[in-house]
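Section 5.1 Outputs to date
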Amino acid sequence: MINNTPHVPVMIDEMCEHLLNKKDGVYLDGTVGFGGHSSKILEYINDDGYLIGLDLDPYALEYSNKRLSVQLNSFSLHHANYKEFPEIMDSLGIKKLDGMLFDLGTSSYQVDSEHRGFSYMRESNLDMRFNPNSGLTAQEFLNSIEENELADIIYLNSGEKKSRRIAKSILKYVKTGNMLTTLDLRNSIENAVGQRYLIKSLSRVFQAIRIHINNELHSLKKLLTIICDYLEFDGKIVFITFHSIEDRMIKSFFKNNALKCICPIEIPICQCDVKPKLEIITKKALEPVSFEVSQNSRSRSAKMRVARGL
């Protein structure tokens, strides 16, 4: 099974090119998943290098531990959210990082697993949790939410314009006791939007509920408030995102931390003494090359942004 990985990592060549610049460096893979990116990091570092890997999915961590253990260089894996990386570093006696990687997508295994409830393509339990041992399931959430709040969550987490109509339909299914599986959720969305734009609406609503269940945007906001404090000079931060909300957050974060002056435009000479924390390496987000998309269609929406510590 180790040679037949359940997930194909995206933009792995670009990750190697932009993240890895110090053979004896300490690197963080904040979303280690099934170890595709981490494996490349371990191939790159020497005996003095070190890799820290974090993930919320216990199955993925178990798989990655077996996969990475055949490699010679040092690493440790931890069952934790990426925003908790400072506590992990402190427990390891590590102060700064030479590289940080955050792949914010769901894995192919999670999407395809019949028992996880991430996909509208097959019927399964409405779970959607990255960590199956913590928090509300999507079924519990949908069976306890008010219509207006659900509509807001769908719109804010996906931009779905028919969020109010969809929320109304979902709650109608809830009231009749018919919101138990992914098929029930799919049917409720289809009942609201019809066939013409069904696939896009399904993708958006499933995404929006998954984001809420796993508190993803809150975790990302928390991460962005602390990340610069743990980056070495000339260290790299690499983000891979899969939808526009997260990409805009990363773009804004990079821009705000690369500012050299915040003085009002009417002041001709800078007086703010702002010191930028980052240099933006990718002025425009990188996207997968056409060959990768042809081999892995799920990579088509990926965007990579890179910055360097100052």
